Amino acid sequence: MTSQTQPDTPDNIKDDIDVDGVSPQMGSVTFTDALELDNGRKLAPFTIAYNAYGELNAEKSNAILICHALTGDQHVANRHPITGKEGWWSLLVGPGKPIDTNRFYVICTNILGGCLGSTGPASIDPQTGAAYGLTFPVITIGDMVDAQARLMDHLGIDQLFAVVGGSMGGMQVLEWASRHKERVFAAVPIATAAWHSSQNIAFHEVGRQAVMADPQWMRGDYLKHGVTPRNGLSVARMAAHITYLSEDALHAKFGRNLQNRADRTFSFDADFQVESYLRHQGSTFVDRFDANSYLYITRAMDYFDLAAEHGDVLAEAFRGTQSRFCVVSFTSDWLYPTRESREIVQALNAVAANVSFVEIESNAGHDAFLLDEPEFFATITGFINSCAQKRGLPAA
Amino acid sequence: MTSQTQPDTPDNIKDDIDVDGVSPQMGSVTFTDALELDNGRKLAPFTIAYNAYGELNAEKSNAILICHALTGDQHVANRHPITGKEGWWSLLVGPGKPIDTNRFYVICTNILGGCLGSTGPASIDPQTGAAYGLTFPVITIGDMVDAQARLMDHLGIDQLFAVVGGSMGGMQVLEWASRHKERVFAAVPIATAAWHSSQNIAFHEVGRQAVMADPQWMRGDYLKHGVTPRNGLSVARMAAHITYLSEDALHAKFGRNLQNRADRTFSFDADFQVESYLRHQGSTFVDRFDANSYLYITRAMDYFDLAAEHGDVLAEAFRGTQSRFCVVSFTSDWLYPTRESREIVQALNAVAANVSFVEIESNAGHDAFLLDEPEFFATITGFINSCAQKRGLPAA
Fold it and tell me: ipTM, 2 decimals?
């Protein structure tokens, strides 16, 4: 059983959030049938919020699911209702863009565990009438994907034309291609890995400890006390943000430039532009993100290990796949370096899957997948068009 | 004017701190004549604590100054009085070691701004009778070196046979070779750079924000309130510690291994060994380090830019040098990558300095300079012996 709010775009919202004429349909569906989680627990009810762009064709064969990253959300191609910024993938998704909303029905859900409409630790636990906090179950990337699959059931979409995502979004793409093989015509895992490295776990642990060290975290119960662990979450975001860039990108962008001053102040002010930038990143993040969601989602990423789910043989995760894969990495991405994409490609080759692999030259670091990278866009455009032809969908 | 505590090694201490028969002479000197700081302020009085090993020869020509890194101290080759661990460079410094205390008089000072006997923000401000806290002046690497030079004056050492240091210790070596050229016969900057990169400033800023976000920091006045910002300093240490290693080292050491458990706990416990390790690094660090010292020393590193002190031309920092240089980097050090050592070498070449450069193959990351790296030890041994011969000191 499900209940839903109709995807709708009231005029007063639409005026604010449209970008380049993109009108998202925004909705959410609440499922009362429990979701069986990887940890053995059942979650019910649960809600999945999503934005959709474009029109689903009569055959329901033109749907593309976009999977967002750790701190992303469903506002992929429209102005963000909180920050007012353009959608996080407006460069890639929209009318005439590489993922063309004139041709495809593009869906992006807020992930399970998130904080923008889907059920997560900030949601009300119907058992208690208060926010879950740390009583929310620890979820996995697989759980996020299973929740998305329930939404596809609800929408009557048997097979997604494509599942596309970068970073943690790429992990979801891989889980889709493994758990729901027959429902994925094409898969595009970008700047991602089949398992979370020791170093990445380490950075996440620093972020979690920063949140938990904040007295306003209150063992996860801050919402009940009407406070927010702003400082801790801000530090977590600052540490993580460094890993999204590259030393070259930081050097090119900031170098040792001073922030609106002629000389060092011999104080702990933000003398350097890079300090000012990071502080800004930290403080704006806490306005739009829930601290416990940050803990749960980083944990899900740390737990992600697709090989471990298949007897430590990654290829087994994909055995029998008929999907077409396009694996993309970026040269300066040190969070998910190219060698981790190559492992995915090798596993796919081992089961004779149809796979393309492209390493894009970029000095922008991990964040390259969100930026204006023409070679990347050309890769996505080419792959999508080629798959559309094979799927019998209209050409561009 | 100076006052001093005699270097002494009471038996009850010596039993605890000797390693491999190394008996440090531990002392401190308090200078009443002010130190003129780079920020224009004067600091008086100030104390420099130091350990010494071996014997100064009659000509006072066999002294080697070891400069410690951010979280190091003067306990270079003896058991640490707080942690009980072997000296941080016991592998390199001691009888028969590459820096041989049977032949050389080895000195290591706790740096100005430190917290193990030298004057720093935790010291009592004689003007107020309370700890300086944030009223302590913001110091520079140059200030640290000038304070060490005052100690050498006091000891009657006109010229150091060698100045050796890694990481921030290497920055001090470079300042010695620039500010006090005639007092340095040989200089060994290891795993370091002539300026602190944007990315390194960024990581330091995260650490400082973590400390300052801790309510027990109390705007730097925690000592007056009898508390310690343990949580914040611990998070700062955890974030920094990741940068001292390499992804390869972390992967080899921990991989995705679980900590004393068969499976994931689906909780926020330290499931992974790397999490447990980092938490341990954080919590033990706060037992031996002052949070404000951490702020001041990271700030000094961020401010370090030897070229900027010389009209943005690094070579000018070394013009006229007669010192012999041995520059060492490690392949997997991403905090101070080899290209930053090459910049030092190029600047030295530009002024026709006598310079050797060695890049050591290691997967241990920045911390390699503290570990058992035979090629590194061979490099130091060869360079020291060659310089000793030129200086007319006895052979090994």
Answer: 0.92
